Amino acid sequence: MTLAPPAHDRGITTLTLDSPANRNALSARLVGELTESLAGCAADDTVRAVVLTHTGNTFCAGADLTAPPDPAAFVALMRAIVALPKPVVARVTGHVRAGGLGLLGACDISAAGPDATFALTESRLGLAPAVISLPLLPRIDPRAAVRYYLTGERFDAGEAARIGLVSLAGEDVDKALVPVLDGLRRASPQGLAASKELVTVTVLQSFDSHAEDLIARSASLFASDDAREGMTAFLERRDPPWVL
After folding, report:
1. Angle of helix 71-83 relative to helix 99-106, nearest 10 degrees?
2. 16 forms bridges with which residues in the sheet?
3. CB-based contacts of 118, cutoff 8 Å, min separation 6
4. Which end of the chain offers a freer environment for a tag, N or C, measured as fewer CB atoms within 10 Å?
5. How far is Cα of residue 84 from the mean position of the Cα atoms in its chain?
6. Quick count: other Cβ atoms within 10 Å of Cβ 165?
7. Which of 43, 44, 32, 33 lies closest to 8 in space, CA to CA?
8. What is the C-alpha separation between 183 and 226, in angstroms, rounded?
9. Average pLDDT over the chain, rounded to an integer
10. What is the number of other CB atoms lying within 10 angstroms of the CB of residue 218?
């Protein structure tokens, strides 16, 4: 399993990414298990909200380059998070890279701790942040998107909060989430679903308008010579030939 068994506490179900051997990378298996678990949460009347967190020092390292998921399946997972009639809260205490930012961006509320770092590294591999743009571009600062999409620079939790990638950044993630989870427990299921529907309209429009094109673009990039060289260089821990 790449997910730990779900934990339940007063209406909050916690789903934990638990594949430390590959830094919780987005394998086909992880995408499938998480999609199935979210569907179970949607159908369970005892679940008021979902917390998505992780084991180890990495929330999600992006696509598993040894066995990347079908882009369409990953898009379906991100859309399922956005469209879930229950809030999804990300709890991040480690690193987030590439496709992991798409997973994070699909969540409704997120809190990141001081050890969290973020980077959109696709351009360094001959790729682009294609399908993860669906939840990211409607939600993050446009000028920051330009910078980090192009450069692949690493940034910290404070910057992630400034640009709108995460909701909260602080020294104690669990303490920061106390009022958030308390607020969700105090809301009615109908009120939460109706309110979430209002604030996700633009993001869902992004999926409905651009998903097909970006899935095709992602597949084309992954099949390119540049991407093959970039991913091989990454796995071999060396610079690709375009590094000056």
Report:
1. 20
2. 53
3. 95, 96, 97, 101, 154, 155, 156, 157, 159, 160, 165
4. C
5. 15
6. 26
7. 44
8. 47
9. 97
10. 26
Listing DSSP states for the chain in one string gives --BPPPEEETTEEEEEE--GGGTT-B-HHHHHHHHHHHHHHHH-TT--EEEEEESTTEEE-SB-TTSPPPHHHHHHHHHHHHH-SS-EEEEE-SEEETHHHHHHHHSSEEEE-TT-EEE--GGGGT----TTHHHHTTTS-HHHHHHHHHH---EEHHHHHHTTS-SEE-S-HHHHHHHHHHHHHHS-HHHHHHHHHHHTHHHHHHHHHHHHHHHHHHHHHHTSHHHHHHHHHHHTTS--TT--
Q: Which two tokens stand for residue 88?
A: 């999804």
Q: What is the reported pLDDT for 22?
A: 94
- Take residue 82 and report the two structure tokens written for it: 């956005």
Q: How far apart are CA 138 and CA 135, in angstroms?
A: 6
Amino acid at 137: L
User: Six-digit token pair at 81?
Assistant: 């998070």
The pLDDT score that the predictor gives to residue 23 is 96
CB 16 within 8 A of CB 53: yes
Instruction: Read off the pLDDT band of 66 (50, 70, 90).
Output: confident
Among candidate residues 80, 3, 78, the one with its CA nearest the CA of residue 42: 80
